[in-house]
Amino acid sequence: MNRVIFLALLIFSCFSFATDSNSKLGYEGKNGQVFGYNTVLGALEALKLDLDAEISESKGWVIVNDNTNKALWSFAPKAHPSYPSVVRRAVVERNGQIGITTEVKCAAKKSVCDSLVKDFMELNQKVKNDINSK
Predict the structure, then answer these.
(1) Most buried among 50, 58, 97, 129, by the most CB within 10 A?
(2) How far is CA 38 from the centre of its chain?
(3) What letters, b where the CB count within 10 A reaches 16 and e where it falls short, cover 93-127?
């Protein structure tokens, strides 16, 4: 149910932000902690201890539904070129509109991180299109 609500919010708007800079993809860079954690793996370990978090796996990716913060975390598998990386999508309100922020922490070289961000931006758009077509 939470995932349905989470995905349905994409209808209203989608805000995208990430940690590596590439103006062609339309996202801004920033450095520092991983959304409040020191490392990607530290974030995963802390989320595993959260009793309100739902953890699953899909094609090697560890997916954490962070019910407390209304966020969905996608941790790259070890075999993925961007490992260790995480994509965090969260419900936000801006100017009276509900939307989704997409934030990425990627430890790989820039071209791999750009590809990761592009993949998730395309996934966001696909979900938005799928919802709008129903």
Answers:
(1) 50
(2) 17
(3) eeeeeebbbbbbbbbbeeebbbebbeebbeebeeb
